[in-house]
Task: inverse folding
Protein backbone atom coordinates (compact mmCIF):
# COMPACT_ATOMS: atom_id res chain seq x y z
CA UNK A 1 0.00 0.00 0.00
CA UNK A 2 1.27 3.47 -0.90
CA UNK A 3 1.30 5.91 2.01
CA UNK A 4 0.20 9.46 1.16
CA UNK A 5 3.38 10.91 2.67
CA UNK A 6 5.40 9.21 -0.07
CA UNK A 7 3.70 11.21 -2.79
CA UNK A 8 5.09 14.38 -4.36
CA UNK A 9 2.77 17.28 -5.12
CA UNK A 10 2.46 18.04 -8.83
CA UNK A 11 0.25 21.11 -8.42
CA UNK A 12 0.28 24.14 -6.09
CA UNK A 13 -3.06 23.12 -4.60
CA UNK A 14 -1.62 19.68 -3.68
CA UNK A 15 -4.64 17.99 -5.22
CA UNK A 16 -2.61 16.00 -7.74
CA UNK A 17 0.20 13.86 -6.38
CA UNK A 18 2.60 11.30 -7.78
CA UNK A 19 4.80 8.47 -6.56
CA UNK A 20 7.35 6.92 -8.95
CA UNK A 21 7.49 3.14 -8.90
CA UNK A 22 9.88 2.63 -11.83
CA UNK A 23 11.95 5.30 -13.59
CA UNK A 24 11.46 5.83 -17.31
CA UNK A 25 13.89 6.87 -20.04
CA UNK A 26 14.28 9.78 -22.45
CA UNK A 27 12.41 13.07 -22.40
CA UNK A 28 9.26 13.94 -20.53
CA UNK A 29 5.99 13.53 -22.40
CA UNK A 30 5.02 16.77 -24.10
CA UNK A 31 1.50 18.22 -24.49
CA UNK A 32 -0.41 17.01 -27.52
CA UNK A 33 1.59 13.81 -27.69
CA UNK A 34 0.00 10.52 -28.66
CA UNK A 35 0.54 8.10 -25.77
CA UNK A 36 -0.17 4.48 -25.01
CA UNK A 37 -0.52 3.55 -21.35
CA UNK A 38 -1.50 0.66 -19.14
CA UNK A 39 -3.37 1.60 -15.99
CA UNK A 40 -5.36 0.32 -13.07
CA UNK A 41 -7.71 2.62 -11.19
CA UNK A 42 -8.72 2.35 -7.55
CA UNK A 43 -10.92 4.31 -5.22
CA UNK A 44 -8.82 5.96 -2.50
CA UNK A 45 -10.62 6.03 0.82
CA UNK A 46 -9.35 7.21 4.21
CA UNK A 47 -5.75 7.36 2.99
CA UNK A 48 -5.72 3.83 1.60
CA UNK A 49 -6.17 2.05 -1.72
CA UNK A 50 -9.74 0.80 -2.04
CA UNK A 51 -11.75 -1.10 -4.61
CA UNK A 52 -10.49 -1.46 -8.17
CA UNK A 53 -12.90 0.04 -10.69
CA UNK A 54 -11.07 -0.32 -14.03
CA UNK A 55 -7.90 -1.74 -15.58
CA UNK A 56 -6.48 -1.90 -19.09
CA UNK A 57 -4.45 -4.91 -17.93
CA UNK A 58 -7.65 -6.89 -17.47
CA UNK A 59 -8.51 -6.17 -21.10
CA UNK A 60 -4.93 -6.92 -22.19
CA UNK A 61 -4.97 -3.78 -24.29
CA UNK A 62 -3.35 -0.41 -23.44
CA UNK A 63 -5.27 2.84 -23.68
CA UNK A 64 -4.25 5.16 -26.54
CA UNK A 65 -5.07 8.90 -26.53
CA UNK A 66 -3.62 12.37 -27.05
CA UNK A 67 -2.42 14.23 -23.96
CA UNK A 68 -3.71 17.75 -23.15
CA UNK A 69 -6.83 17.50 -25.29
CA UNK A 70 -9.29 16.85 -22.47
CA UNK A 71 -9.98 13.27 -23.51
CA UNK A 72 -9.09 11.96 -20.07
CA UNK A 73 -9.41 13.36 -16.54
CA UNK A 74 -7.43 16.45 -15.63
CA UNK A 75 -5.15 14.45 -13.31
CA UNK A 76 -4.00 12.35 -16.23
CA UNK A 77 -3.56 15.25 -18.64
CA UNK A 78 -1.30 17.01 -16.12
CA UNK A 79 0.27 14.01 -14.42
CA UNK A 80 1.46 12.36 -17.63
CA UNK A 81 3.47 15.47 -18.50
CA UNK A 82 5.76 14.55 -15.59
CA UNK A 83 6.38 11.02 -16.89
CA UNK A 84 8.69 9.33 -19.40
CA UNK A 85 8.34 6.24 -21.58
CA UNK A 86 8.83 3.12 -19.47
CA UNK A 87 7.97 4.89 -16.24
CA UNK A 88 5.54 3.38 -13.78
CA UNK A 89 3.93 5.67 -11.24
CA UNK A 90 0.94 6.17 -9.03
CA UNK A 91 -1.17 9.26 -9.61
CA UNK A 92 -3.33 10.30 -6.69
CA UNK A 93 -6.13 12.53 -7.95
CA UNK A 94 -8.46 14.54 -5.73
CA UNK A 95 -12.01 14.99 -7.09
CA UNK A 96 -11.08 18.27 -8.81
CA UNK A 97 -8.59 16.32 -10.91
CA UNK A 98 -10.84 13.29 -11.39
CA UNK A 99 -14.64 13.14 -11.84
CA UNK A 100 -15.60 15.90 -9.42
CA UNK A 101 -18.93 16.25 -7.68
CA UNK A 102 -20.77 14.19 -10.28
CA UNK A 103 -18.55 11.12 -10.15
CA UNK A 104 -18.83 8.49 -12.88
CA UNK A 105 -21.65 6.14 -11.84
CA UNK A 106 -21.96 3.36 -11.10
CA UNK A 107 -18.29 2.65 -10.31
CA UNK A 108 -17.05 6.04 -9.13
CA UNK A 109 -19.09 7.93 -6.53
CA UNK A 110 -19.39 11.69 -6.24
CA UNK A 111 -16.36 13.58 -4.88
CA UNK A 112 -14.15 10.49 -5.07
CA UNK A 113 -10.37 10.60 -4.73
CA UNK A 114 -8.80 8.14 -7.15
CA UNK A 115 -5.49 6.29 -7.26
CA UNK A 116 -4.13 5.21 -10.63
CA UNK A 117 -1.19 2.91 -11.28
CA UNK A 118 0.06 4.07 -14.69
CA UNK A 119 2.76 2.72 -17.00
CA UNK A 120 3.74 4.66 -20.12
CA UNK A 121 4.23 2.20 -22.98
CA UNK A 122 4.97 4.71 -25.74
CA UNK A 123 4.78 8.40 -26.56
CA UNK A 124 4.98 10.25 -29.87
CA UNK A 125 4.90 14.04 -30.11
CA UNK A 126 2.28 15.31 -32.55
CA UNK A 127 3.69 18.84 -32.64
CA UNK A 128 6.65 19.95 -34.73
CA UNK A 129 9.79 21.04 -32.86
CA UNK A 130 9.82 24.70 -31.85
CA UNK A 131 12.77 25.35 -34.16
CA UNK A 132 10.72 24.14 -37.15
CA UNK A 133 7.82 26.37 -36.14
CA UNK A 134 10.14 29.38 -35.93
CA UNK A 135 11.41 28.67 -39.46
CA UNK A 136 7.86 28.33 -40.81
CA UNK A 137 6.70 31.52 -39.10
CA UNK A 138 9.74 33.43 -40.37
CA UNK A 139 9.13 32.22 -43.92
CA UNK A 140 5.48 33.28 -43.63
CA UNK A 141 6.56 36.74 -42.52
CA UNK A 142 8.89 37.05 -45.54
CA UNK A 143 6.15 35.84 -47.89
CA UNK A 144 3.62 38.21 -46.34
CA UNK A 145 5.99 41.14 -46.64
CA UNK A 146 6.51 40.42 -50.34
CA UNK A 147 2.76 40.26 -50.95
CA UNK A 148 2.20 43.48 -49.00
CA UNK A 149 4.87 45.28 -51.01
CA UNK A 150 3.13 44.12 -54.20
CA UNK A 151 -0.20 45.50 -52.99
CA UNK A 152 -1.68 42.03 -52.49
CA UNK A 153 -2.99 42.74 -49.01
CA UNK A 154 -5.38 39.80 -48.68
CA UNK A 155 -2.58 37.41 -49.61
CA UNK A 156 -0.28 39.13 -47.14
CA UNK A 157 -2.86 38.75 -44.38
CA UNK A 158 -3.23 35.05 -45.18
CA UNK A 159 0.53 34.54 -44.91
CA UNK A 160 0.74 36.42 -41.62
CA UNK A 161 -2.17 34.44 -40.18
CA UNK A 162 -0.45 31.18 -41.05
CA UNK A 163 2.77 32.36 -39.43
CA UNK A 164 0.87 33.29 -36.28
CA UNK A 165 -0.84 29.90 -36.19
CA UNK A 166 2.54 28.14 -36.31
CA UNK A 167 3.73 29.77 -33.09
CA UNK A 168 0.53 29.70 -31.04
CA UNK A 169 1.66 26.59 -29.18
CA UNK A 170 5.38 26.38 -28.31
CA UNK A 171 5.69 24.31 -25.15
CA UNK A 172 9.29 23.53 -24.22
CA UNK A 173 10.89 26.47 -26.03
CA UNK A 174 14.35 27.47 -24.82
CA UNK A 175 15.00 31.02 -23.53
CA UNK A 176 16.63 31.90 -26.85
CA UNK A 177 13.68 30.50 -28.79
CA UNK A 178 11.24 32.42 -26.58
CA UNK A 179 12.96 35.68 -27.59
CA UNK A 180 12.62 34.76 -31.28
CA UNK A 181 9.00 33.72 -30.80
CA UNK A 182 8.07 36.97 -29.06
CA UNK A 183 9.66 39.01 -31.82
CA UNK A 184 7.83 36.97 -34.44
CA UNK A 185 4.54 37.34 -32.59
CA UNK A 186 5.04 41.10 -32.47
CA UNK A 187 6.04 41.43 -36.13
CA UNK A 188 3.46 39.06 -37.56
CA UNK A 189 0.56 40.62 -35.68
CA UNK A 190 1.71 44.15 -36.41
CA UNK A 191 2.06 43.34 -40.12
CA UNK A 192 -1.29 41.54 -40.10
CA UNK A 193 -2.89 44.68 -38.67
CA UNK A 194 -1.34 46.76 -41.44
CA UNK A 195 -2.75 44.39 -44.07
CA UNK A 196 -6.20 44.39 -42.48
CA UNK A 197 -6.26 48.18 -42.41
CA UNK A 198 -5.81 48.03 -46.17
CA UNK A 199 -8.61 45.49 -46.63
CA UNK A 200 -10.86 47.39 -44.17
CA UNK A 201 -11.13 44.43 -41.80
CA UNK A 202 -10.87 46.81 -38.89
CA UNK A 203 -12.13 44.68 -36.01
CA UNK A 204 -9.66 41.92 -36.83
CA UNK A 205 -6.97 44.59 -37.16
CA UNK A 206 -7.70 45.65 -33.56
CA UNK A 207 -7.39 42.04 -32.43
CA UNK A 208 -4.01 41.75 -34.15
CA UNK A 209 -2.85 44.96 -32.46
CA UNK A 210 -3.92 43.62 -29.07
CA UNK A 211 -1.87 40.46 -29.66
CA UNK A 212 1.17 42.51 -30.69
CA UNK A 213 0.87 44.76 -27.63
CA UNK A 214 0.99 41.68 -25.42
CA UNK A 215 4.65 41.50 -26.44
CA UNK A 216 5.47 45.21 -26.48
CA UNK A 217 2.90 47.48 -24.89
CA UNK A 218 4.79 50.60 -25.96
CA UNK A 219 5.30 49.74 -29.62
CA UNK A 220 4.62 53.00 -31.46
CA UNK A 221 3.90 51.37 -34.82
CA UNK A 222 1.28 49.06 -33.32
CA UNK A 223 -0.35 51.85 -31.30
CA UNK A 224 -0.54 53.98 -34.43
CA UNK A 225 -2.20 51.16 -36.39
CA UNK A 226 -4.62 50.57 -33.55
CA UNK A 227 -5.49 54.28 -33.62
CA UNK A 228 -6.12 54.07 -37.37
CA UNK A 229 -8.43 51.09 -36.87
CA UNK A 230 -10.42 52.98 -34.24
CA UNK A 231 -10.71 55.96 -36.57
CA UNK A 232 -12.02 53.69 -39.33
CA UNK A 233 -14.62 52.33 -36.91
CA UNK A 234 -15.60 55.89 -35.93
CA UNK A 235 -14.49 55.22 -32.36
CA UNK A 236 -12.84 58.60 -32.11
CA UNK A 237 -12.41 58.74 -28.33
CA UNK A 238 -10.54 55.43 -28.36
CA UNK A 239 -8.51 56.55 -31.33
CA UNK A 240 -7.46 59.74 -29.57
CA UNK A 241 -6.54 57.82 -26.42
CA UNK A 242 -4.32 55.33 -28.26
CA UNK A 243 -2.71 57.92 -30.54
CA UNK A 244 -1.84 60.09 -27.54
CA UNK A 245 -0.17 57.07 -25.94
CA UNK A 246 1.90 56.68 -29.08
CA UNK A 247 2.72 60.40 -29.09
CA UNK A 248 4.03 60.23 -25.53
CA UNK A 249 6.56 57.64 -26.71
CA UNK A 250 7.38 59.39 -30.00
CA UNK A 251 6.45 63.09 -29.54
CA UNK A 252 7.92 64.18 -32.89
CA UNK A 253 6.37 61.46 -35.05
CA UNK A 254 4.81 63.31 -37.99
CA UNK A 255 2.32 60.56 -38.89
CA UNK A 256 0.90 60.45 -35.36
CA UNK A 257 0.65 64.24 -35.19
CA UNK A 258 -1.15 64.31 -38.54
CA UNK A 259 -3.58 61.55 -37.52
CA UNK A 260 -4.44 63.39 -34.32
CA UNK A 261 -4.91 66.63 -36.25
CA UNK A 262 -7.34 64.88 -38.59
CA UNK A 263 -9.41 63.40 -35.79
CA UNK A 264 -11.60 66.42 -35.12
CA UNK A 265 -12.17 66.92 -38.82
CA UNK A 266 -13.19 63.26 -39.29
CA UNK A 267 -15.53 63.36 -36.31
CA UNK A 268 -17.16 66.59 -37.54
CA UNK A 269 -17.61 65.13 -41.03
CA UNK A 270 -19.33 62.07 -39.55
CA UNK A 271 -21.59 64.16 -37.33
CA UNK A 272 -22.56 66.42 -40.26
CA UNK A 273 -23.31 63.37 -42.40
CA UNK A 274 -25.55 61.92 -39.70
CA UNK A 275 -27.38 65.24 -39.22
CA UNK A 276 -28.05 65.50 -42.95
CA UNK A 277 -29.30 61.92 -43.02
CA UNK A 278 -31.75 62.58 -40.19
CA UNK A 279 -32.94 65.79 -41.87
CA UNK A 280 -33.66 63.86 -45.05
CA UNK A 281 -35.59 61.24 -43.09
CA UNK A 282 -37.95 63.74 -41.47
CA UNK A 283 -38.65 66.11 -44.37
Result:
Amino acid sequence: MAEQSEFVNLTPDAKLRKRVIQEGEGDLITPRSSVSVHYTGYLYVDGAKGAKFDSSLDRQRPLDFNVSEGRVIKGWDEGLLTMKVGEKAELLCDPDYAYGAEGNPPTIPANATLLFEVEVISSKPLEDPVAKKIVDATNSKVSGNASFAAGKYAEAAKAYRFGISRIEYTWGATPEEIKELNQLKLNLNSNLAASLLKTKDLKEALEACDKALEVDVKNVKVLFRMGQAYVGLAMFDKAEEVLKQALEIAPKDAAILQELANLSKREKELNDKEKNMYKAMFK
Observations:
- Residues 153 and 195 are 5 Å apart (CA to CA).
- Confidence is low (pLDDT under 50) at residues 1-5.
